[in-house]
Amino acid sequence: METIDSLYSEGIKLIQAKDGYRFSLDPVLLAYFVTLRDGEDVLDLGTGCGVLPLLLARRDPGLRAVGWERQPQMVDRALRGVGLSGMSQRISVVEADLRDHRELVAAESFSLVVTNPPYRAMTSGRIAPGDERAAARHELAGGLNDFLVAASWCLKGGGRFAIVYLAERLSELLVGMTGVGIEPKRLRMVHSRAGKSARMVLVEGRKGGNPGLHVEAPLYIYRQDREIRDYTDEVLQIYGEE
Question: For the chain, how many structural domains are there in total?
Answer without folding.
Answer: 1
